Structures
1.
Amino acid sequence: MLADTTSTVEVSLTVRGNLDQVAEMMRRVFGVSQDEQEQDKIIDNDDETPLPEVWSREDLARLWAEIYNRDARRLLAEMATKPAPNGYPVSSLGPAIGIGANMVGGKLSSIGFARKRVFPGKKDFRIVDNGTWRFMLDPQIAAIIRDLAKAEGL
């Protein structure tokens, strides 16, 4: 008997552990190497925040439309409320939109997967300063994301 490959299949995965353990498991599950992760600007900050690759309003609007998960869009919108140079504390993101810390990684991955799907090879506009564990969005990018969120009522 042949399997029906046209049916929708849903898979849920629960990963428990500390941040490093969960990050390693997610890399394994999604096939992301450490080199790819470093290319996505998960960096150690040496008092210089690198400038993001140029992202136009049209690019960000197109990306926004491809982020299908509403909580992922809410998370990005919240992140945009505190742009660089101070940034948004990673640990505060989930509570700010009412989701558990265990859900944040998946929502952030949704944003990354959409970016890679729509703009393969384009560097991420989200920068994580590993020294302070803050997301650092360029203020102009943050303003565009806030506009997109406002237009959606987020």
2.
Amino acid sequence: MAERDRRRYGYAAYVNGSAAPALPERKEVRRTADPEAVDRTRTDLEVRVLEKRESGRRWAFGHLAVIVLSALSAAALITVYLLQVSNYRTQAAAVSALRKTYQETLQENNLNQNRQEASVDLVKVYAYATEVLGMRLPEKQQVVRYRAAGTEYVSKLGDIPNE
């Protein structure tokens, strides 16, 4: 029966008086800090395992370097992005302030223009020109009308065309 239990459970027979099976005896293995100090030769499997460990360590360093470089690159990109957003917000605030100043200046300019136009009394100007300066309205033959090319404003820099 013990053989059958050993096969079924993989353990030795039950310990007397206990429901727990007895654990197999462990062989004590002496380990040294230097794996080369062992007198026996290594099997192919052990050599492959050691090679995998070494290549894993090399890969781990390379992997760590890639992760660190990626993190630094991401931090640099985030910093540049945040600076751009800050610069954009600063410029947007400056543009908004300039637009407000422009509107205020435009209103002030229009107000000043209206005041100036309202302050001029055309009747007084006409009376001053005709009475004090001796000016008078032109006769019909003194007025020459012609069309200007492309504009309503004519500067007197040249001769008036005949037709």
3.
Amino acid sequence: MTKNEREQFKAEFIVSDCPSLNEFCRQKGVSIHAVKDYCAKEKWMEQKNEHLRAIAEEVKKQDFENRTKEAVRNIEIRQNDTLNATQKAKDLFYTLIIQPNLEAKDLNALASALYRINEIEATILNGNKASKEQRDALDKLCDAIRGASQSDE
């Protein structure tokens, strides 16, 4: 085996999926004795392991980047969904507030609800995540408003 052939063989081994030099030699039809001394002297296994570590690091990096992008997409989707829900709640609020038989206590409850909706919306628009308490409050508010509007119909 010439030096160029040995260098080519070494390069192929380092990037191959074969875990051992014996198996790689068997696949390539090369006698292990022809390359064994060079492998030890030039530290082919260490180079192969370093190559595998570099690949693993790149995979981890890409996985982290993909997960980060997915998390950002999920946050944006949740923010948009929450903003849509707050807009629907506001629309319903303005529909209910013009009811002719609205009592003062109901008006006060609607005003408190609108204040709470505005707080939630401001939190989202300021780039902060709404707390679980705020999301729960919005869910309860929407349910209450839906219930109130259905009972009026």
4.
Amino acid sequence: MSRARDMANLGSQAESGLDASDITTGTLGNTVQDNITRLGVVTTGTFNGTVGSSATFPNGTLVKSEFYKYTDGDKDTTSETLKAVRNYQSFSCTVGNTIIFQWNFLWEAFGNGQNTGTRRGIATAYQSTSAVSEDATSLGTALNEMVIGRILTGNSSAGVNGYIPTLIQGSFVATNTTHYLGLASKTLADVTVTCRVTQTSNRPNTLSIFEYKGDVLT
């Protein structure tokens, strides 16, 4: 009697289709499990696995970030020629993705014993597809330039120095799998002014790098 009832239920289910209440125990066959992996877009539930390297993300998604803190000594310049503040930082990335990076440091300007009213310089963010060393003048592609300092109406005491917290950003679309990110500086006065990028433990020079999926700049 029970078997006959089961057969009748099976026939009824075959006509109406199975639902969740019809399957409560047991293991599905391999072919059924394979079909489940092809569900497509799943809009509910919690995924506790690992996203693999072949996963595809929409444009604008942050896919990588790196942070560096430099405390190996201040970098001074009295030159009116742009020079690399330090060796450029290499960054591995995907061609076609957008790279945005930020240098954050304390800028100092000194009168060098001169009573000058103008104490200013330039800091520029660069990227290159090849390595660039400290003090180099062949710098790659300039992305953003900032004039930092002051111009007073009259001379001020040589002992009155300028201190300016500075953040300079660069952005570009990667054309190589490795790019080099740099900072260059120069003075806009003559050798009576020293411009300094601080790089000490209590006044570090920091670099933050972000890689976004696709070209988000255009």
